[in-house]
Design goal:
Elements (H helix, E strand, L loop, with lengths): L5 H17 L2 H5 L9 E3 L2 E10 L1 H10 L3 E2 L5 H14 L6 E6 L8 E2 L28 E6 L4 E5 L5 E8 L1 H8 L1
Parallel strand pairs: 4-8
Antiparallel strand pairs: 1-2, 2-8, 3-8, 4-5, 4-6, 6-7
């Protein structure tokens, strides 16, 4: 298997994701109802992946399925993902979302290409986060700590994850 540094991988992953969407792979998968096993919420389809993987492997898995690790753009999205995970993972443990700061510039970016660093963007960090403890916390998991919100953590840890596909109305508007 080829070896990539994380920043190079993310660039390839985001560009691959956008190419899938622009060539209709995601649109074809998600016309009307969500594919079997996926849950619909706010014009997007979500899939809980119970198998624990590193952040990179979780994103690669989502890309293989035609999507990305999930992004959260509202309190409603945040609560939905937590409920989806809780309903399928009795341990109520953390899970990967598509937020990272592994690329040059260290601003937070969703793996689907949307920004998370612009003032006014939705965020659900636990108090004191992100803190980049030890200078090695470049990926984000959700459902962590007492408040069960976002926490930055090392990308090599292994957690369950949630993937997302976009419905035609939202994906065609975003990527035209």
């Amino acid at each position: 298997m080829a070896s990539f540094k994380l920043p190079a991988f993310l660039c390839v992953a985001v560009l691959s994701s956008m190419a899938l969407v622009s060539h209709g792979a995601v649109i074809g998968l998600c016309q009307g109802a969500c594919p079997k096993g996926w849950a619909k919420h706010n014009n997007r389809c979500f899939l809980h992946v119970a198998e624990k993987k590193t952040w990179v492997d979780a994103e690669l898995n989502c890309l293989h399925l035609g999507g990305n690790l999930a992004s959260e753009h509202s309190e409603d999205d945040h609560q939905f993902l937590k409920e989806l995970h809780k309903g399928l993972d009795s341990s109520d443990s953390p899970f990967w979302i598509g937020l990272s700061a592994v690329h040059e510039g260290r601003s937070w970016l969703w793996s689907d290409g949307t920004s998370a660093s612009v003032e006014g963007d939705f965020s659900m960090w636990n108090p004191g986060e992100p803190n980049d403890a030890g200078g090695k916390e470049d990926c984000v998991h959700d459902n962590y700590g007492g408040q069960k919100h976002w926490n930055d953590i090392g990308c090599d840890k292994q957690y369950a994850s949630i993937c997302v596909l976009r419905h035609p109305a939202s994906s065609s508007r975003r990527y035209q």
